[in-house]
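As promised in the previous annual report, we have extended the structural survey to additional targets. Below is the entry for O-antigen ligase domain-containing protein.
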Amino acid sequence: MEAVLLGLGLALLPVYTFESGSVQFSHIILTLFIAIRFSYRNHTLTKASIFLILLTILSFTVESLAVIIGAASYASFLEPTYLLYNSMILIAFSHIPLDQKRFRVAIITSLIVAASIAAVYGLAYGSVQRVSGGGYERTGGAFNNPNQLGFFGVCVASIAALMYMRDLISRKLCVLMWVMSLLIVLISVSRSSAAAIAFLLIFGMGAVLNKKRLSPVVFVAALAGVGTLFVAFQLGLLDQLQSVARLQQTGSSQYDSLSMRGYSIPFHNPLEFMFGVGSEKALVGTFFTRIEVHSTWWSFMGKYGLLGFGLFVAVWLIWSRLIYKELGLLGLLIVVVPASINGITGNYSRFTALWILVGLPLNRSLWAARQATPDDRMLQPRRPFVPPPRYSQGIVPGNG
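The corresponding structure token record, generated without further manual editing, is:
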């Protein structure tokens, strides 16, 4: 039953029946799965989950004070609710027994189904936004906007990379999921997602060649690939691609600057700088049009100040260190960096797929027995020397 709920919840991730910020069917199904998992009472909190819970408590405190003084409505309590739900996602996915085949099959199969739904719906039935004067169309698929669709493609590609690096899926299946993710990103015409997926695929080819080390040849090939794309772009050979058409218009909109994305939110006193201004005041834009901060990173700075930003960064650093320690520099580049790139100009802090991506690497039920080879030692932290049992008993060569 658990595996069925898990698979169904993941498969429905790209299907948004209601407006953004509302509860979707996937949220309900995954909540049922979480409730069953939590009933076992064998969940120890990881450091990342502890920091995320602290961020949830801070969110509830700041939003409560804003409501009490009349600076916000009760709707602002949605923000800590989102964080609480994603905290449970993080904890649950970090404790799924991946050593059991039924859970592995449920995750892998459902992600393929979800990617297929996102791609097919986006191509055939997706809601289409035509940008005036842009000459291109953007589709959100079954999501509510194209940026969600693009980021979902990046998350699927990163999860596929993680499972491949952990020997949970084959090379061919990983490449297939990358191709599907690339298609999702291309039809979304999302610039940040395009940059993230391009980065992942460039270094992902290195993982396909040798997942245990990042060869210098891969660096050279990556630079050559980037150079080739740049030359093709300059010569106009890529002008027929809608993603390129949108990229060429970068800077023509007032929202293309980092300041309009929310990095210029003013703090009027030390308290606001330390604890933020709450979700309903952390808005950017003109007097007539106010939108939330378009940055996963800076949204927490605006809403919950330096303290909230620090707690979120702590979660990210713990996740990054864990990936680097287990999978080396190559794993860090294709699992962590793409989502980090996407988060610079898009706020995906409430996106369930993001916290699944963070939670799965914390799972220790299938720790990859990955030993450093001589060529790989420069990419991994040094491990302490443990003497063999014979030496540890005081027996050394020549004294026996």
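The chain has one domain: 2-392. Residues 2-392 form one domain. These points will be discussed at the next consortium meeting with the crystallography subgroup.
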